[in-house]
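Continuing the series of single-chain predictions for the mutant panel. This is the parent chain; the variants come on the following pages.
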Amino acid sequence: MNKRIRLAAIDLDGTLFDNHSRISPHNQEIIEKCIAQGVTIVIATGRPYAGLPMEELSRLGVRYAITANGAAVYALPEKNCIYESCFSPDVICPILRELQRKEIHLDIFVNGEGYSLNDCIPRIDRMDMPESIRTYIKKTRFLTDDLAALVENEQLAVQKAVANFYPLPDGTFLYRDEAIRLLAACPDITFLSGGYHNLEFTKAGTSKGSSLLFLCRHLGISREETLAIGDTQNDLDILQTAAIGVAMGNAIPEVKKSADFITLTNEEDGVAHALEHFILNG
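Parent structure:
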């Protein structure tokens, strides 16, 4: 690399977070050192603004977050949305109506907040995901009987929607294949998995990578001065967009194959290891 790294974009779940949704002391220490050297640390997550660990990020000095798979970029801690790419109600409502007829855990993100169906919460413990993720969902969702009606009646701009599926005894997931066919038939939607066999969908063309490029322009930083770290399918685009793409040791094979560097796992301070390698010792 001819240019030093001035911006590092870091995913949360499975990356900066350990398996209990905590940021380790060593990861915190290295992030603080990078910021002290003038590096901009950016969170790049599939979560909405409400899912950010704001107390820790504020203490560390993190000033920007790419949220909802790139659908919204916020300046922290003010919740100042500086970029947004949303579904219009006429695009997302027919999809929501079809999906909420089935036994699927369905969430939408609006203005940085999460909304779920009332009847999803009692079934949440059936989902194949860590307890820390289930707890996060329970704590951060507003509830409604009808997501499509909420969006249509209030003409809400939806940043992202998420379908989580209940596992079946044969190892498949209830209604997941049907949901894939429904989403694939809509050219106005981009969808992928953010982990735990879910489907996350945003407006076509929206990604963490496109929001990274926006933030680079906003901050006057070139793409050649960026690094990104992630572990799942919703990180592929940003790892390929950044000058250096780093896969976690626990990343899915597809992410590892596309990365420039594979660091340690999220249980072994893999973020700190990558930042030390490319920034502090680079």
